[in-house]
Request: fold
Amino acid sequence: MTANAASIVIPTHRRPDLLRNLLESLSHQKTARAFEVIVVNDGSAGDLSMLEVEFSDISVKVIDLPQSRGRAFARNEGVRNSKGDVLIFVDDDMTVVEDFLERHMAAHGDVMTVVIGNVLSAPEYSNDPLARYVERQGVHKLKSRARIHPKCVRTGNVSVSRELFTRIGMFDESISKYGEDQDLGMKFGEAGADLVFAEGAISYHHHPPDIDDMIGKMQEYGRYSVPLLVAAHPQIRQVIRLDLAEPVRIGRECPLVSVRKMMLRIALTPPFYRVARSVYGFKWLGSLLYPVIDYIRAYNYIRAYRESQKESAPKARPGPIDPRRN
Reply:
């Protein structure tokens, strides 16, 4: 690899057809820059080594993991087997535009730059409200992109210098479920990185929108990832609204905060949730469903997190028996 070359790192798990579509789109990049593609097979059965021959024009290298270790470990392993000065992370269920690489590379100012790409819904799902909701998260929710919050980092389409990525400690491999990108984003923020949005670095997300799949991910996120994120970055409690799930402290906190906590307590009850799930069935409501989806996400990860904390809390030990009592 030459100086300033890029390494595109792709973790993959049991999606060979989608992966092939992504590699096909990468093979059509219009750029004079040198780059390599590192595919990390995260415990999937089947031999992917033929991709190295089929896509030799873009220097594909396949790394096989004998068992699934999660996206964080797989991405780190890809980096450990790469050579580029700039690391571009892309998910295996995406396809990219012809100037994707060029847009990412052009947006890098110095080693402290982190470039957030533009993830859009694939055309086949463009009319689904859940797909459109996901598309409008992160950077798209900001009124101004002058200052981008680290919570907007989505590692399905992001690039960073190898120097900065190594300096912040890479992905946290203890986070094996959904949420490893939040940890990385928080570490970028703590390191003082310059977050920029490359609107033209477009990737199309080809994952079928499925509310039950989203709910499952949120429950895993709340149970397994959020405790690790809170321990590493206490300030993330406000970012993901966990602070509003804490007990109400009337007279010891802002009255508005107390009111919001009481409203959330009501919203976290099963009857309220069942109503929201029923409303989601009216897909024709379109963008009016976005607050409902937002609520469904929060309900599942907050409750899962609270349950995990109850389970991990030390059990009270019985006190000594008073011999004077019968």
